[in-house]
Design a protein that fits this description.
Layout: E1 27-29, E2 36-38, H1 55-63
Antiparallel strand pairs: 1-2
Length: 64
């Protein structure tokens, strides 16, 4: 039996999903440095609570 190729291969179970481009990810502005930062996988569960782009900005906010 000959297998067909093309787009139908992507719908098979076990195939890799398409990648999301960085431009399509949500962005926020850091509360300390006012720079934009993008969503990260490690923030998936807490994205609504993320306010700072980095640990350094988070620490600087606590000093104020």
């Amino acid at each position: 039996m000959k297998r067909g190729g093309g787009a139908s291969d992507m719908s098979r179970p076990g195939s890799k999903p398409k990648r999301v481009s960085k431009a399509d990810l949500p962005e926020k502005t850091c509360a300390v440095c006012n720079r934009p930062f993008s969503w990260r996988k490690k923030w998936a569960r807490v994205w609504e609570d993320v306010k700072y782009c980095s640990e350094r900005c988070r620490r600087d906010a606590l000093k104020r």
